[in-house]
Amino acid sequence: MSSELVGQHGIGSVYASIDGAFRTNQVIEKWLASGQGKGIFTAAPTPVKCAGAPLKMTFTTLSRLEESGRREHFDVEYMSPGTDLFSQPWVNEFVKQRFDEQAVKRRHNYRLSAIDPQAKQAEFTFVGPESEFTSHHELREAEFRREGLPTVITDYDFIHVVPPMSAHDFIKNSALIAQDGPFRGEWLDVDIYTMQHNRYPDVFGIGDVIGAPINKTAASVKAQAPVVEENLLAVMQGKLPPARHTGYTSCPMITGIGKAMLVEFGYEDNFAFMPSFPFIDPKDESWVTWVMKDRMLQPAYYAVLEGQA
Ligand SMILES: Cc1cc2nc3c(=O)[nH]c(=O)nc-3n(C[C@H](O)[C@H](O)[C@H](O)COP(=O)(O)OP(=O)(O)OC[C@H]3O[C@@H](n4cnc5c(N)ncnc54)[C@H](O)[C@@H]3O)c2cc1C
Question: How far is the CA of 75 from the centre of ligand 1 (A)?
Fold first, then answer.
């Protein structure tokens, strides 16, 4: 699918660009104004930038549908490529339950594989939970061959598209790419704790490009930077890398317009919570966290970029 389609034919994607996000909002407004119809929210079969963003899109749109007073005239479906909706187990269960309460039809193990913009139809490939594929790379190869994977075609009035993601081509086409395991052919092959390349010890990785089970957030980049710096200096002096990244990642999970949960977690203990503020419970939805997300995070991210935080 071309990202130029975002904003047309009921297609939205918060991931395409800032302009694409703006056009996505316009498409949602048009759908709302029509007073009825079916909205499909998708997720990608790969790790994505801000794993919570596809869920936040669903929750904010649900708020707007409820606000319209015509919620019962709208069908909302969430098509998940796997059995889980989020990597942090408590949040995963919370979102599943909340979707059920808000009459979102969850369909699991479906991945978006084609779209017909004129007909407003989407094709989903069913990948059973018993799938033998160990990586997105293998699955994608099978999908291209169209081998034994059942598909369904469904109509929509609005669809939120979350594209599959991977490292940039110049990494994928280099020896630095992961050669096996779940990140094979898609992400940079680093030790997720030391950030050192698994095969080229003088190479380090940071940010979304690395193959890691969680972490594609700016909050992770901020936590990884000092680890990379310390380990790089040590390796240059012939020492072993002393610093370790905890996997810290942060997702201000918007659960509706005006409320959010500050979900912070890391690699240890099955992605256990790592709260930064004693006065914010990661399991609580609050207006304070919403205000933090809505008003305070952008200046905070800019301060990080400028080395001031
Ligand atoms: C919708 C959305 C919501 C998000 N929400 C949050 C949030 O609430 N909290 C949070 O912490 N994080 C959030 N993130 C994630 C955050 O934006 C990323 O984790 C962060 O930007 C990663 O930084 P990076 O430098 O690793 O990668 P990027 O920011 O992607 O930077 C990579 C850069 O490389 C450039 N590039 C690509 N190819 C080439 C080339 N060949 N030559 C030169 N340059 C090239 C790209 O243009 C890009 O500027 C969100 C992301 C999205 C998309």
Answer: 32
Q: What is the pLDDT of residues 150-177, one digit of tens each?
A: 889 999 999 999 999 999 999 999 999 9
pLDDT digit string, tens, across residues 77-123: 999 999 999 999 999 999 999 999 999 999 999 999 999 999 999 99
Which ligand 1 atom is at minimum distance from the Cα of 222? 11
| Cα 217 to ligand 1 centroid, rounded to whole Å | 8
Q: Is the CB of 163 under 6 A from ligand 1?
A: no
Q: Which residue would you say has higher pLDDT here, 44 or 144?
A: 44
Is 208's C-beta closer than 6 angstroms to any atom of ligand 1? yes
Answer yes or no: CATH 3.50.50.60 is held by domain 168-243.
Answer: yes
Ligand 1 within 6 A of 15 CB?
yes
Name the pTM for this structure.
Answer: 0.93
**Common-topology check for domains 3-160 and 168-243:** yes
14 lines ligand 1 (CB under 6 A): yes
CATH architecture type of domain 3-160: 3-Layer(bba) Sandwich (3.50)
In DSSP notation, the chain reads --GGGTTSTTEE-TTS-HHHHHHHHHHHHHHHHHT-EEEEEE--SS--SSTTHHHHHHHHHHHHHHHTT-GGGEEEEEEESSS-S-SSHHHHHHHHHHHHHTTEEEEESEEEEEEETTTTEEEEEE--TT----SHHHHHHHHHHT-S--EEEEE-SEEE--------HHHHTSTTB--SSTTTTTSB-B-TTT-BBSS-TT-B--STTB--SS--SHHHHHHHHHHHHHHHHHHHTTPPP-------EEEEEEEETTEEEEEEE-SHHHH-B--S-TT--TT--BHHHHHIIIIIHHHHHHHHHTT--
